[in-house]
Structure formats: structure tokens, C-alpha cells
Amino acid sequence: MVDAMTPSPVRILVVDDEPTVREVVARYLQRDGYLVRELDRGDQVEAAVQDFSPELVVLDIMLPGLSGLEVLRTLEARRIPVIMLTARVDEADRVLGLELGADDYVTKPFSPRELVARVRTVLRRVQGAADEAGDGISVFDGLSIDHRSREVLVDGTAVHLTAKEFDVLSFLARSPRQVFSRGQLLERVWDSSPEFQDPATVTVHVRRLRTKLEPDPDRPRWITTVWGVGYRFEP
Questions:
Q1: CA 8 and chain centroid, separation
Q2: Which of 5, 21, 111, 155 has an alpha carbon 20 to 30 Å from 226's alpha carbon atom?
């Protein structure tokens, strides 16, 4: 008999058309206590999301049926965290994936242990956001950030942010006028050493935030660039 107080395992969907990659990833995730479902086609994801309700998706870019980037658009709209699997040569796809809302990426060939560590990090960040929210709501001139509900309003209008975009905004807004380098943001927001991440990841997310928050993204009001150093939030 299952104890009603025992939390259900986190559900993870692994989508990759290479059986060996899919099986290794699934095995390592299951070993870490996750409930895993495997798919080998992009056009199977929508039905699996409806049926399985994954809390995170590990998604290959090159898929039959629908490409990983096409699938990513659907998952981003549902606010399901995504870790992309890409080949090392697919830099353009990685950047586009991040722009479409992916939370992280791992390049092939990769260490399954590294991937599991990335999964833990993304889930911890998403699931622990409410516990770490602190004061709850930050209100600035025209901008409201609810750190608990993860809702953002600009001039009273709700703005949809991906999980990682919100994390970046929330982190910067908690330390107004403090400058953070891209390396510091990788360490503090991504929980990742810069040697394992591309600093361009930060640039992509800041650009997306400006597009969604700023009346004129080329002349940002909230998240400004300190040239040669990094970014800061202007209250």
C-alpha cells in the first residue's frame, strides 16, 4: 500500500530518435528516482503531454515527425521546462532553442551524470521558486514582479515569461543597481560553472526579457548593460 504522504516521483519525458541515447538517459534518470517515459518522434509529444503530464522534457533537436524546435514552441506555451540535446556543431539551433524558451541544453556526446545534474538543477529552480520567494512582490514604476506566483505585470498587463526568463528577472530585481557578469549569472541563476555553459545563454535570455518587458528593447529601461562587465536592474 502506498503511503498517501509519500510524494509522487517527478515525471520526465525523454524524446530522442536514437535508441541508445534514449535508453541511457532514461536509465540514469530512473536510477535517480524519476518516472520516465520515452518517445522517438516529435509528433508524439502532444499526446504524451496530455496523457503523461511531464514536469520536465529532455528534447533532442533532430527528430522525425516534428523537429525539436517545433515541439519546443508547444512546450514553452505550456510552461514545461525543457533541456535540449544538441550536436556540438548546432550552435545556431542551440541559440534558437534558447530564444524559443528552452531552460538549458546539453551537447552530444554528453555525460549522463551531467544531464541528470542539469535536470536536478532545473527542477530545483522551478519547484523551489515559491519557497525562495522571500518578500513576495516587488513593485517598481510600471513593473510588478510576484516572486511567489511568478507573475509579471507591465503597466498592469500580464507578461508571459518562460521559467528561466523569470528566474533571471527575479534575481536581478532583488539586487537593484548591482552589476552581475554573465559568468556570475550562470553560477547564480543556472547553478552552473561557466566552463560548462556558454555565456551567450545569458545574452539570449536578457534579449528575450527586453523584448517582452521594454517599450524600446534597444534602449532598455529595466535591464541595462554595463559594457565590459555585465547587466544590472534599474529600479
A1: 22
A2: 155
Quick check: bond before 109 cis, omega within 30?
yes
Nearest Cα to Cα of residue 124 among 75, 192, 65:
192
CA distance 150 to 160: 10
Q: How many CA atoms within 13 Å lie on the side-chain side of 39?
A: 28
Q: pLDDT at residue 29 above 50?
A: yes
> Which grid cell sits at 49?
503531454
In sequence order, what are the residues at sequence separation of 6 or more whose Cβ sits closer than 8 angstroms to the Cβ of residue 205? 98, 164, 165, 168
Quick check: 69 and 60 in contact, CB under 8 A?
A: no
80 against 22, higher pLDDT: 22
Interacting residues of 82 by C-beta distance below 8 A, sequence separation 6+: 56, 57, 58, 59, 72, 75, 76, 101, 102, 103
- Beta bridge partners of residue 230, listed in sequence order: 226
CA distance 147 to 137: 6
